[in-house]
Amino acid sequence: MPVTAADLHAATAALEAALAPVVDRDWTAAAGTGDLDAYRTAEHVGDCVLSYAAQLVTRRDDRYVAYEAALMKDATVADALEFAVTGGKLLAATVAVTGPEVRAYHPTGMADPEGFAGMGVVEILVHGEDIARGLGVALDPPADVCARVLERMFPEVSVAAEPWTALLWATDRVELPGLPNRAGWRWQGAPLRD
After folding, report:
1. Is 70 helix (H, G, I), strand (E, B) or coil?
2. Stated pTM of the model
3. What is the second-level CATH architecture of the domain 5-140?
4. Sign of the CA dihedral 155, 159, 163, 168?
5. What are the tens digits of pLDDT across the range 69-78?
6. Element (H, E) at 155
7. pLDDT, tens digit, for every residue of 46-94?
8. In the chain, where are the structural domains located?
9. CB neighbours of 193 closer than 8 A, spacing ≥ 6?
C-alpha cells in the first residue's frame, strides 16, 4: 500500500497531539535535532515539508526551488508548531492532487508524490520525536503509517521490531540489540520501480 496524503495527515495529527499540550514550555531550552533546539527543529520541519510541496508544484528536475521558509522573529512556540503542522497539511494537499507520474528533484533521486509524502512523514515524525524527547513527552504515531513509510523509504530495512521503533532505528534515533547503528542513513527518494 502506498504512502499517501492520508499518512501525512496522520503524522501531523500525531505531532500536534503530542506537542500542543506543551506549547507553554520554553522550547528554546529543550533539545531538538542535532544542534537545533526544539523551537528551531519545528521550524526545520515546516521548511522541509513546504520545500517538498514546492518541488512537486514546480516539478524542478535539477535543484531545489530557491527559497527557505522560516518563522517570523516574534513567532511563539505555538506558532512554531502551527508552522510545522500547516506545512505538513500543505504537502498533503499537494500530494493529493499530483499525478503519480510526476517526478521532481531530490538529492536521493527524482521523487514521485509518494516519495515526497514518505519524506514528509519521516521529517514530521522523526523530528517530532526529537522535539518530544527534549520536552519529556511521547509521540505516538499510528503503526500502519510507520510500516508503510518504512517499507517505501527504507526498503533495505527489515528488523524484528514494531514499526515505530524500526523507523526510529532506520533514522538512527534508537539502538536495537545486535544491529549496527544507522549513522549516515539515507532514504529512497526515487520510486522503487524506477
Report:
1. coil
2. 0.96
3. Up-down Bundle (1.20)
4. negative
5. 999 999 999 9
6. none
7. 999 999 999 999 999 999 999 999 999 999 999 999 999 999 999 999 9
8. 5-140
9. none
